[in-house]
Amino acid sequence: MSELKLMKGNEALAEAAIRAGADAYFGYPITPQSEVIEYLMTEQPEKRTGMVVLQAESEVAAINMVYGAASTGKKVMTSSSSPGISLKLEGISYLAGAELPAVIVNVVRGGPGLGTIQPSQADYFQSVKGGGHGDYHLYVLAPSSVQEMADFVEDAFDIAFKYRAPVLILSDGLIGQMMEKVELKDQQERLTDEEVIKRHDSWATTGKTNRERNIITSLDLVSEKMEARVHRLMAKYKKMEEEDLRFEKIMCDDADYLFVAYGSSARIAQKAVELGREKGLKVGLLRPITLFPFPKKQLLDLADQVKGMLSVEMSAGQMVEDVKLAVEHKVPVEHFGRTGGIIHTPEEVLEALEQKIIKENGSIRYHKTRESSIL
Amino acid sequence: MEVSDIIKPENQVFCKTQLLTDTTLSYCPGCGHGTAHSITMEVIEEMGIVQDTIGVAPVGCSVLAYDFMNIDMTQAAHGRAPAVATAISRVWPNKYVFTYQGDGDLAAIGTAETIHACNRGENIVIIFVNNGIYGMTGGQMAPTTLEGMMSSTSPYGRDVKTMGMPIKMTELVANLPGVYYATRQAVHTHKHVRKAKKAIKKAFENTRLNNGISFIEIVSNCNSGWKMTPNESNIWMEENMFPYFPLGDIKVNGKLK
Fold first, then answer.
1. A163 domain residue, yes or no
2. How far is B51 from chain A, CA to nearest CA, in Å?
3. What is the ipTM of this complex?
4. B63 and A214: CB-CB below 8 Å?
5. Does residue A238 sit within a domain?
6. What is the pTM of this model?
7. Residue range A174-186: average pLDDT?
8. A69 touches chain B (CB under 8 A)
9. Which of A83, A174, B12, B148 has CB 3.0 to 4.6 Å from A264, enough for a Cys bridge?
């Protein structure tokens, strides 16, 4: 039976991992996500389902433990917050290169550097533009509620195994720390060792039986082979875009103006939509649920309808670049967001739309820009 | 009599283990890695545990170990093999998991992972090939490069005033309660090969009995990096490496010698 509980986002995520039948979690404490490993250590999933939980000596060790467990076909997860994710990036690049399924969670805090422990969305670039070295992407899911913190764990595992690729759940300190009602799914059985071997014997290192040996590596010293590997990855990303793109449209049908926001900012922008509608402004919201793949086509379609877009994110302006790329200069796109751990209010967000997009009459400014570029 | 008349199955007194592939080794002629590989594979074959063995390759000369070892293998990021092996062993507790690492990998960039895997007493085998140099990148100074020894990044010899003394990893980890077996071996003569193979077998037996970590250092040569002939390098190793890195058991059955 599913179960209704009041939980912190981090706790809901941890509980959902147990219920999704995860085989292992490897982590290292960092604010504001330490509740994940604390919850797991208290809950002792080793007794409940046989899931392994280990506190590693560092984020670097934790992500390499994830690499090890993933290489054997097991369902494995880690979580951290921004500075810790920076440390994990080498391992994440290896996971992508070696084509391993794994779930990584970033409960983002402000940066750069040690930054602040307050919520932020300033890891967008790191999450969707690679972050680590080489030609790769992560499938990035952005939850905007405690419920989605729980739901996206299972979704992330499904995608990770569908594509044999690492998946990132990009949360933030606000969703990680706040408590909400959450409906938890039923416990899924963990796969037995025999089932893991049966499912993943074609690639996983589970011990060589009457087959060719399985090798997990991201190394190809022959350039043509390495290029083929990169092409294989790119084909996966294309397929993700075709089959697993996720987004949510709120009040977009008649919208003259559009907010584009994900995660916490989407919640705030949704309230700003309501405030705007009360004032008679036809405002809508497009919420990318996956940040990679990104709802490019949906934004381009909306660009034919709206007069301007405001990208709202708790950063100095990162996703706004992708929104601009998506709309191909058809409408003005501006950014609004507080940084340093400050959470913008719905009023601030609506005011930013009025000042940056509506009052400046963006559509007129746009045509001028275009003419000048033609000249 | 033709050579082909002699080379017949019935005349064969020695054969290569099935667990070594026919791929040409990428190691320099004279290097000890090939021997260390083959005795490790012989042990796995003799114990009949190939279906339950997972190896972890490092970054360094032996990064391509999986090309030569005919078993399931995962290649780890530089220095992280003990963390990778930890996880494999935790999620497959009945498997035999080993890492095969060099001195740069294990004793420099991977020091934290090495120490903590040992401290937790993970039920794995660590095979640590120490030749006192970074071979693959072209002969740079390693944490185990001897005092005064020349390398491309210590062209006037290792200055211990600025670089410290070469690190003795096996002695260091032997002091951790999680380490069940710590030994230092060599593979440059028949006698040493036999002893080293025995040590590796003991290590895998320890895994079978769930005893915790077995740490096997193999002091080896790097004739290319040391700029010597293979024979010269083995003599130099005996005269210079062995006094500082003395061969023999350091900890057996959880007790320091």
1. yes
2. 4
3. 0.95
4. no
5. no
6. 0.95
7. 98
8. yes
9. A174
